[in-house]
Amino acid sequence: MNGLVLIISSIVFFIVGYKFWGNYVSRQLGIDETRKTPAEEINDGIDYVPTRPGVLVGHHFSSIAGAAPIIGPITAAYFGWIAVFLWIVLGGLFMGAVHDFSALVISIRHGGKSLGMVIEERMGRTSKILFLLFVYAALILVISVFTNAVAVTFVKVPQTGTSSMIFMVIAIVFGLGVYRWNFNFIASTILGIGFLGLAMYAGFLWPIKLSVNTWRVILLIYIFAASVLPVWLLLQPRDYLNSFILYAMLFILVAGIIWVNPELKNTAKPVFSTPSGPLVPLLFVTVACGALSGFHSLVSTGTTAKQLASEAHAKPVGFGSMLIESLLATGALITAAALTPEAFNQKFSSGAIPLFSSQSAKMASSLGIPFEFGRTFMSLAVAAFALTSLDTATRLGRFAVQELAYNPRSEKQNIIAQNRYVSTIITVIAGALMVFSGSDREIWPIFGSANQLLAALSFLAITVWLIHRKKPSAFAAIPGVFIYFITMGALGWNIYSFLKTGKLVLAGLAAILIILALFLGVEAVKVIRKKDEGSEIV
């Protein structure tokens, strides 16, 4: 089989799925464009800001994508590309898109609050605290891993460091121009994209060469600023403008695949037993963001829900962005599937990102794009993915700290719950401790399982919410049950593997995650059985 068949079939599948399955899910969620959103009602100019749908799609897509939809499918190619492809397209439509879209809608119906608040209302404060603690731990890991990943990328490809720093200045000017100086939005966008091109060129002329630790400190300062500054000033415009780089990368990748039509030489048939472990359940937690990711629910209910100007925008933002990410995952898979098993093993030994950059640049060269420029551009785009997830994760961590500190029974809240500077400092310090300790590398093997566990817990909250609204819930419940037990199996395998190699701390962490999942699962089942119709959620 050739890459053209895979990429075209996935595009058609996602377009049809967006139209029909997306409309079905919209009806069950009760989308009402006449209902005011939290962004319109609160509009505090800091976190709650009504935003154009095109801008919000860019912010949301940039935030959820990260580097995972590239790393996951390439890493999972060991299981055979047919199995990976089927999980990406089926999981992306029926699980990932439903998960992201539903979480976004639930949040805007609860004043832009996180799923933790929904869990508290339906399952009690203890369940909420446990859920938010798990969320916060996952976010600290994201901050640590992505800070290190971006810092290392800036050292290896210093052009990306220069360009990224200039991007931030351009984003601030764009935010001021659109929101404070009333510049024309389309004209500002065109100018912004033009300046992005100049920033990339400046990166080639004046690459900034700093040490990894220096970049780490700079990035930690940046994420603090991105968390506390008004969302319209830095985070949103940076993500929006960055999205054009990501769209360009995706367009070049897809166009290159269509033009070259590479033969898929890697292992095709499912490989049920590999040195890394069995296909089931590990395939489903290895691909991660390309098909389903619990982190997406944090973005949907953290920053995106506070910027949605109309419920009519929820489908393209929540459902549509996930399908774009699944298309990217399909393209990344093809770059690995086009290699022979021997060539794949050789190239993958240097990492998934270098493999993706070189393979996609090779395909892009058939379109007349110089190979070295293409490889650098792809590296820059991946760094942009990671950086947008990094700054969003910090803001989400701030929200989690404030929700944990919030006391609904008290009229006067403590400084952590009220002050975004204090809650951000706590989050950045926690991330910095992990960044400079190097412990994130040891915990990373279970992060894929933890991420999917978060998705399962989000599906539980979505299912409870639907049941109490007397709405059909099978479209959320079935994926939730599936990924719940798959994740439990993956964590069980992790415990076995860690005990076998003497990694007792990691085995203990995996066991804690299982206990947490069991507790919240049992509580959810109890709530569903009660069906407390007297406290219906609107």
Please give a structural write-up.
The chain has 538 residues and is mainly α. It has one domain. Helix content is 76%, strand content 1%. The protein has a two-stranded antiparallel sheet with strand order 1-2. Strand 1 and strand 2 form a beta hairpin. Helix 8 packs across helix 17 (371-405) and helix 12 (279-286) crosses helix 22. The longest helix has 35 residues, at 371-405. It is globular and about 60 Å long.
Mean pLDDT across every amino acid position: 88
- Cα distance, first to last residue? 49 Å
Main structural class: mainly alpha
Choose one word for the global shape.
Answer: globular
The number of helical runs is 23
Query: What is the helix/strand order?
Result: HHHHHHHHHHHEEHHHHHHHHHHHH
Number of strands: 2
Low-pLDDT sequence parts: 532-538
Biggest beta sheet attributes: 2 strands, antiparallel
Keywords:
single chain, 538 residues, mainly alpha, 23 helices
